[in-house]
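Supplementary Note 3. Input sequence used for the single-chain structure prediction.
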Amino acid sequence: MGDEGGKRGAGEHLRPFHAVDLASLHSMICHTIDVSYSDVYPVRAVQFFKEYHSEKRIMERNETGEVLIMENDGTIVATGALVGNEIQGVFVRPDCQGRGYGKILMAELEKRAKAREIRKIELSISLPSRKFYETLGYEVLAERSEDVGEGQYLNYWPGEKALL
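The predicted structure, written as discrete structure tokens, is reproduced below.
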């Protein structure tokens, strides 16, 4: 797998999420939302993202699907989940973006979907992640907007990809 834009270490590996990871994983997700979303989304939308990816939601994803974690030398650098035919909660730590972690994670989630004979994978695409998903072959569908209150909106796109 490519190492686009950076170096990856020998201490990295992809593994299933365990309950003991919850606090660290949630902290990484919130940090990533703060850094990657605050410049492109209004304050209430950023808060919506954090609530949507709460510790409770992470545990629900793990109970109804499978959550994966990418570690590098014991530090969580990326995560994503496969729930039914949907990929959810994909995040790469801001200081680790551009190093290929997201591509490795997505390839593994797609591989697991194929193994379950899922023919089409779906996901939601945020403003900062659109180019990434387009590069991976996801079709970006019509823009959607979620009213998050006080005249603020969270804009996103549903996306899908056929798995052969």
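The CA atoms of residues 21 and 76 lie 9 Å apart. The chain has five helices and eight strands.
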